[in-house]
Amino acid sequence: MMKDELQEIREDALKQIKESADLKGLDNIRVSFLGKKGRMTAILKSMKDIAPEERPKAGQVINETRKVIEEKMQEKKELLENAARDAKLRQEVIDVTLPAKKRRVGHPHPNTIALEEVERIFTGLGYEVADGPEVEYDYYNFEALNIPEGHPAKDEQDTFYIGNDILLRTQTSSVQIHMMEHGKLPIRMIAPGRVFRADEVDATHSPCFHQIEGLVVDKNITMADLKGTLDEFAREMFGDDIKTKFRPHHFPFTEPSAEMDVSCFKCGGKGCRFCKGEGWIEILGCGMVHPHVLEMCHIDPEEYTGFAFGVGLERIALLKYEIDDMRLLYENDERFLQQF
Ligand code: DAH
After folding, report:
1. Which pTM value belongs to this model?
2. Is 125:232 a contact under the CB 8 Å cutoff?
3. Which of 28, 147, 205, 322 shows the greatest Cβ crowding within 10 Å of its Cβ?
């Protein structure tokens, strides 16, 4: 009786295994015969109804049947796996006649090239390159730079506020204050970084651009040091024949203050389209650090003096590479970038 049933299970299983066409189907067959609720398991459970003296014999037959089913199942499994792998390989044939994917190598941005040049010049003069936060307290961006509440310079820079007294810095001059508060003298630093102003985008404006701040504080620093240093910077940056000119100006945190022009490196100063007929091009703001700014940073202005300057990085890059629209610097079109 049990023998007949086993014979039937065995034939049925082998037939199903033979006919199964994929791994999933094969696994279903395994479950239905060998699984917890499978037919072989049921038979094993029915052993308890058999007379004890017949059990060993019955057990042996059951085990044999199970073994045969398992073996056939394994054989078929390998067969199906091989077939699946072959099919996959056939699908993944590589067409060696297709054009190769180009590996595209990026290109340094004109801002980066210009910044590295500025850093090379100033580190060569013994300056360190410092860093400061882009999100800044009102105190560092304005107050400590002699721009108190209600000062018109504050309006001019029409700031992005984050909280009552926290803002996106409008000028890298804030790094001057951090450096001086640090208390380590003398100071010779440049601080490049992003600044933010609520300006509309056009050919010469962007709400986010870059400045490079410079600060020197030491004993006996005079206007002559400022002029000599920035003169050297201009010549290294724009060429040996460049002349510089300092025009009086006003910045709240320097006294006296100036703007530096360089002779037009396109026409040599005769006047052309590039310099709008002026012969001169404005490059940066500078001045002697205001004694009150030194005092607020706990530096004695009787003992120490200093000079500072601020350059627009984009301005330098636009001039150096004769780019006439600032927006080109932010589009990151490779065809544009590749030219520098
Ligand atoms: N922070 C000024 C600005 O954004 C630029 C500047 C002028 C920086 C004079 C200086 C300086 O350090 O001495 O317009």
Report:
1. 0.72
2. yes
3. 147
